[in-house]
């Protein structure tokens, strides 16, 4: 096993990127150390020739594991599950495993894309600043209503029971963003609130938070 | 001895059930996957336009009211990504993932470009919103913009990795997610496919696969008669 100060994994990340946050959280939960390489999206560092070689789509996060380079948080997380099966993030029960993947999809397909900066910037040109914010908030709430419905009979301390799983990894940054950036009224979502309170108490979650990253600007 | 009819009923009960809407590209992905894996299934239409996704029966299966939903005995799974992963694990005989772990990741990344960067930004709900807030003339440009942006990403991602199909010479997850998107959006939204030579070639390859053709919207039991 590699020494703690000699990680072989490298994660290209931006402190405020919720997709990067998912991967930081998963790496912490699995006890995998990694080297953090900041990509300043505001300064356009995703367009440098070096980064372009890693990910021609210019997105973070990107994981480098020896020769293997993987982009897209969902792809990275599934890779980590397979390559580093310690502390599994997917339950073995097929029904629960599928539920976790469904939650991950709801976050990554039905919520996050509709409030990410590039979408909102493009929308703002068409409908103005107030309306684009309303659009973002409406879609976050719609997604949260869906998650609340989906999880209410299965939620335990965490999303799908009493252990942290993939659903939590996707939901934690999403809920954090909803409360900080969009001021969503979480009292409408008791199960999600409960899950979030449990996750906030985890040191792995705190250490993965934007403010704790080397490139955080406070 | 079991009567023929009872035997057929038992067979029917053991069959996979797919709740699907003919036009749903998410449902199309799973129809393709099932065909590729030679898995028989019972097609149960859910008419989204008539609001059948809100019926008590369907709500019990999927409280969020989305298609597709797969029922396999006691197991009920929603969301095309989750269903796909389930099928890969439960029915591994015709794998839709390459064995190489890095190539597998590439497939998930490509599938996710469709699921997260394209489809949700040009689905019916978003287009209705754009029509209401900006105007009916904005529908097509909005959809075209997002589809082309995603297609540019896919073209870049796959250009050095594609073979006969998206990530090699075998049909895999990337193809299953890409094909419905190529079929669905391109004509309707005036997508300029000349900009995407690889995707154009792949689309041609997909049209020759009977498993894909059989899964296309117009060939479903609930498709309106032409």
UniProtKB/TrEMBL annotation, chain B:
SUPFAM superfamilies: GST C-terminal domain-like (SSF47616), Thioredoxin-like (SSF52833). Keywords: Transferase. GO terms for biological process: glutathione metabolic process; L-phenylalanine catabolic process; toxin catabolic process. GO terms for molecular function: glutathione transferase activity; maleylacetoacetate isomerase activity. InterPro entries: Glutathione-S-Trfase_C-like (IPR010987), Glutathione-S-Trfase_C_sf (IPR036282), Glutathione_S-Trfase (IPR040079), Glutathione_S-Trfase_N (IPR004045), GST_Zeta (IPR005955), GST_Zeta_C (IPR034330), GST_Zeta_N (IPR034333), Thioredoxin-like_sf (IPR036249). Residues 14-95 form the GST N-terminal domain. It catalyses: RX + glutathione = an S-substituted glutathione + a halide anion + H(+). Belongs to the GST superfamily. Zeta family. This is glutathione transferase.
């Amino acid at each position: 096993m590699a020494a703690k100060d000699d990680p072989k994994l490298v994660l290209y990340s931006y402190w405020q990127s919720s997709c990067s946050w998912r991967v930081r959280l998963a790496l912490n939960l699995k006890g995998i150390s990694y080297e953090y390489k900041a990509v300043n999206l505001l300064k356009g560092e995703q367009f440098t020739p070096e980064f372009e070689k890693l990910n021609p789509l210019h997105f973070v996060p990107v994981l480098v594991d020896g020769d293997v380079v993987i982009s897209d948080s969902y792809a990275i997380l599934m890779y980590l599950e397979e390559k580093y099966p310690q502390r599994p993030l997917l339950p073995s029960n097929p029904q629960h495993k599928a539920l976790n993947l469904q939650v991950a999809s709801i976050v990554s397909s039905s919520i996050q894309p509709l409030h990410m900066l590039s979408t909102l910037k493009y929308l703002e040109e068409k409908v103005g600043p107030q309306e684009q914010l309303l659009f973002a908030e409406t879609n976050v709430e719609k997604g949260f209503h869906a998650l609340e419905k989906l999880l209410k009979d299965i939620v335990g301390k965490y999303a799908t029971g009493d252990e942290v799983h993939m659903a939590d990894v996707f939901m934690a940054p999403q809920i954090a963003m909803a409360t900080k950036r969009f001021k969503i009224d979480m009292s409408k979502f008791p199960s999600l609130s409960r899950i979030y309170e449990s996750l906030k108490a985890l040191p792995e979650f705190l250490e993965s938070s934007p403010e704790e990253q080397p490139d955080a600007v406070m | 001895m079991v009567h023929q009819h009872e035997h057929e009923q038992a067979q029917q009960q053991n069959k996979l059930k797919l709740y699907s809407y003919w036009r749903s590209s998410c449902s199309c992905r799973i129809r393709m996957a099932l065909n590729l894996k030679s898995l028989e299934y019972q097609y149960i239409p859910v008419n989204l336009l008539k609001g059948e996704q809100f019926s008590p029966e369907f709500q019990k299966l999927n409280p969020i009211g989305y298609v597709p939903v797969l029922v396999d005995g006691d197991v009920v799974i929603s969301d095309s990504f989750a269903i796909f992963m389930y099928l890969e694990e439960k029915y591994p005989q015709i794998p839709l993932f390459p064995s190489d772990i890095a190539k597998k990741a590439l497939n998930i990344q490509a599938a996710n470009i469709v699921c997260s960067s394209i489809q949700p930004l040009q689905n019916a709900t978003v287009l209705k919103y754009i029509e209401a807030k900006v105007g009916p003339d904005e529908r097509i440009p909005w959809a075209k913009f997002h589809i082309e942006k995603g297609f540019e990403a896919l073209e870049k991602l796959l250009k050095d990795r594609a073979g006969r199909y998206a990530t090699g010479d075998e049909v895999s997850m990337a193809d299953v997610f890409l094909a419905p998107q190529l079929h669905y959006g391109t004509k309707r939204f005036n997508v300029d496919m000349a900009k995407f030579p690889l995707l154009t070639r792949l689309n041609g390859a997909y049209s020759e696969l009977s498993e894909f053709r059989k899964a296309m919207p117009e060939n479903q039991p609930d498709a309106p008669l032409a």
